[in-house]
Amino acid sequence: MTRATRGCRDNGGVKKRTGLLLAVILGLLGYGVGLAQPYVLRTPLVVGQDAAVPDAPARVRLAEAGGRVLVVDPAQGDARVAFVLYPGGLVRPQAYEWIGHALAAHGVRTLIPEMPLDLAVLGTDRAERLASELAGGLPVVVGGHSLGGAMAASYAAAHPDAVAGLVLLAAYPPDNADLVDAPFPAVSLLAGNDGVADPDRVRAGVGSLPAGTRLVTVPGAVHSFFGRYGPQAGDGVPDVDRATAEAQITAELVRFFAQVR
């Protein structure tokens, strides 16, 4: 075999290996883009998507306050309190529109903001702008589901004089958010079969909330029952239907908002 022949074969092997490596790299890039797409390209903010609540009419609109906001107002009469509701991580605002409908009949204006990349941790102080631009001078209760609840607690701890109440749905305050001496009421709801939020941490988190905070367990419910976004990976198995769980969630929230002034 001549040196020239060996050189041709070596070059061919190098080209084959280079082509294979390039194919692998392109495949990995494509896979990465596929994984990232749902996080970067979020679905549109939709009004009225699966938000029906029996006998609970409401007026719904989209507004702007440092970003898009889903606003749910009483169908008749004026609201007496505003509720800023931070969505759970990677959950679209419309998943919680049903809560706004359920509370509208009780004089609550619900403001559900769209967060950057649907992560409340990137918009912890969003409630401040919502309160100034959309609350209309009403007392402002902040709250949220899961990660959204933790960030709402963080905001409340940093702005105690601007908050009239705190609602945690399958959530607990961050370690640096001490609300024991906060001048407002709070309530914490725990899904009985939650497989996402650590029940022990939710229970322990009540110790960092204002004195008199009620911890309410929704029997048989799971983490995803607080929002209408479908089953969630790692969640528990419900022992109750969603309608029953939503009815208890609504009853507890109505009870809480009745004491907010």
What does this structure look like?
- This protein is α/β, with parallel strands linked by helices and 261 residues long.
- The protein has helices at 3-40, 97-104, 126-134, 147-158, 199-205, 242-257; strands spanning 58-64, 68-74, 81-86, 108-113, 140-145, 165-169, 186-191, 214-218.
- The protein contains six helices and eight strands.
- The protein starts with a helix and ends with a helix.
- Mean pLDDT is 90; it is low at 30-40.
- This is Alpha/beta fold hydrolase.
- Residues 83-236 form the Alpha/beta hydrolase fold-5 domain.
- Pfam families: Abhydrolase_5 (PF12695).
Which homologous superfamily in CATH is the superfamily of the largest domain?
Alpha/Beta hydrolase fold, catalytic domain
CATH architecture of the largest domain: 3-Layer(aba) Sandwich
Structural shape? globular
Mean pLDDT: 90
- H/E element sequence: HEEEHEHEHEEHEH
Q: In the CATH hierarchy, what is the class of the largest domain? A: Alpha Beta
Number of E strands: 8
Strand content: 15-25%
**Count of helical regions:** 6
Q: How many angstroms does the end-to-end distance come to?
A: 94 Å
Give the radius of gyration: 24 Å
Which bin fits the share of residues in helices? Answer: 25-40%
Describe the secondary structure blueprint for this structure.
Layout: H1 3-40, E1 58-64, E2 68-74, E3 81-86, H2 97-104, E4 108-113, H3 126-134, E5 140-145, H4 147-158, E6 165-169, E7 186-191, H5 199-205, E8 214-218, H6 242-257
Parallel strand pairs: 3-4, 3-5, 5-6, 6-7, 7-8
Antiparallel strand pairs: 1-2, 2-4
